Amino acid sequence: MKKIHDTLKTANDDSIAYIYDYSLDNKYNLIWFGGLHSHMHGTKASAISSYAEQNGLNLCRFDYSGHGESSGEFKDCNISGWINDSLSIIDEICLGPQIFIGSSMGGWLALLTALKRKDKVSGIILLAPAVDMTEILMWDSFKEDEKELICNQGYLEKSSEGYDSSYLITSQLIKDGRKHLLLNNPIILDCPIKIIHGMKDQSVPWDLSLRVSESLSSTSVVKTFIKDADHSLSRKDDLNYLFLSIKEMIKIAY
């Protein structure tokens, strides 16, 4: 297994940090899409890396602009830019068709990217997918004074489950997100898709995954709801279920 830990220069002159573990002898490929403010060394990304190495799977994980080891300031970033980061990694780094694995915001980005690279996706695994989050989970949940603040000041400082510190939600992030909303129309993807969601998730309501599954055109959509799991899905049992889902996805996706 060869490990490449490097950066990729994109057309926008961003430097996207990535780790690519691969061997030409491996038949199956995974790519990890992390969540908002996460990074490629996080608990789930590292756990999947270990699983991939132990089971002869290629894995690519990377940091979006404004995240982890990649260039850029978070406050200047948006969904369009993170889609472009993802496409750059898929087009220039990853070899062969991939199983996309997306967590939280990464679930939304995995779907948006899959729609643009249908020839590169064999299957998709979504963990608590925060689809359309800038509208449904952010803007629609803001109080009127918060909406006024984000419009007048240009940003709102918020905290969320799993974060030790607050982060900025900018008006440009909200406006850009509206270009990429998926749930108002069918999501035309025909590959097999698995969705895993904890029912004690306080960041992304589990019933959002029901809406996502109803919007998907694929005839192979499997939903699993874990009653005592929270948003992180990082407990040993949660990770073991993820690994089982990867194993099952390989059987039906290739």
Please describe the topology of this protein:
Elements: E1 2-9, E2 15-22, E3 29-33, H1 43-54, E4 58-62, H2 79-92, E5 98-103, H3 105-116, E6 121-127, H4 133-138, H5 144-153, E7 155-158, E8 167-170, H6 171-177, E9 193-198, H7 207-215, E10 221-226, H8 236-253
Parallel strand pairs: 3-4, 3-5, 5-6, 6-9, 9-10
Antiparallel strand pairs: 1-2, 2-4, 7-8
Q: Based on the coordinates given, report the CATH architecture.
A: 3-Layer(aba) Sandwich
Query: Which strands sit side by side, in order, in the main sheet?
Result: 1-2-4-3-5-6-9-10
Terminal residue distance: 21 Å
Total discrete domains: 1
Report the total helices.
8
Structure, explained:
This protein is α/β, with parallel strands linked by helices and 254 residues long. The chain has one domain: Rossmann fold. The protein contains eight helices and ten strands. The strands form two sheets. It has an eight-stranded mixed beta sheet with strand order 1-2-4-3-5-6-9-10, with helices on both faces. Strands 7-8 form a two-stranded antiparallel ribbon. α1 links the parallel β3 and β4. The longest helix has 18 residues. It starts with a strand and ends with a helix.
Short note summarizing the structure:
The protein is of the alpha/beta class and 254 residues long. 35% of the residues lie in helices and 23% in strands. Helix 2 (79-92) crosses helix 3.
